[in-house]
Amino acid sequence: MIRALVLVLTASAGMAGAAEFDDADIVFLGEQHDNPAHHARQAELVDEIAPAALVFEMMTPAQVAAVTPELIGDEAGLEAALGWAESGWPDFSLYYPIFAAAPEAAFYGAALPREEARQIMDRSIADMFGAQAAEYGLTDPLPDDQREAREALQAEAHCDALPDEMLPVMIDIQRLRDAYIARAALEALDATGGPVAVITGNGHARLDWGAPSYVERVAPEVAVAAFGQGEAAHGAPEGGFDVTEIGPDVDRGDPCAQFRDG
After folding, report:
1. pLDDT at position 4
2. pLDDT tops 60 at residue 3
3. Backbone phi and psi for residue 107, each to the nearest 5 degrees, phi listed first
4. Domains in the chain, please, with CATH?
5. Is the model's pTM score more than 0.85?
6. Which of 46, 80, 155, 260 is the right S-S partner for 101, CB 3.0 to 4.6 Å?
C-alpha cells in the first residue's frame, strides 16, 4: 500500500493531479455524496488517471451489466438504464461526468443489493459475503477501540436517534459494504490489469478501516492510494488518506430535523 506524504490541499493551495497516484494499482476517490464539487474533482482525476476500470459504490453488478459503450455518450439513456432515479443516490448529473471521463473503461458495481442488506438482522455478514469471508476478516470481531469509535460515529451520523442495539447492525452493514467494494476493486484489477479507480464515499475510502484496508489484508502486494475530500466548514475527513482536498461547503440545513420531526 502506498504510504506517500499525506497532502491536505485547498483550492488556493493547488489541487492534486494524477501524478500523486502514479504508483497505485487501485485509487479510491472519496466524496461527500451530495457535494457537486467533490464529483467534479473525481471526474477530473478519472480523466487524468485514465483507469482501465471504474468501480462504483453506488451500483450493483446487475445495474452495471446494463452499461454499453453507446450509453456512455447518452446521459439520459444511461440514467434510465441504470434505474438511477429509483436508487436513492443524488442526482445523476453529479455522477455522469465521471462515466464520461473514462468511456473506454470497464465498469464494475460494488453495491450491496437492497434485498441482501435487509437480511442483515437474520444472517451474519460472513454468511452473506460467502466463501472468502474469513480471508476478508469478516469472521473476526472488531478490536474494542475500533468498535467503540465506529459506534460513536454511527450514533452521530444518525443524530443519536438510533437505539443502542442498532449500532452494531449499522457497523456490520458498513463492514460488509467495505468488503464488497474491496472485492470488486480486486476483481477489476485482475480482469483489466489496472489501474482501477473506485468512486465511493469518504467513509469507505479511508485507509484505517475502509475498503483499502481489506485490499491490503487480502492482496498486500497491490498498491493502493486513497483520496479524501472534505469541506471548508468541517475540515478533512477522518480515517487517513494519502491525499486530502478541502472543497466548498454544501448547505444541508439541519440534517437532524428529520429525526426530531418524525
Report:
1. 40
2. no
3. -110, 140
4. 7-247 (3.40.50)
5. yes
6. 46
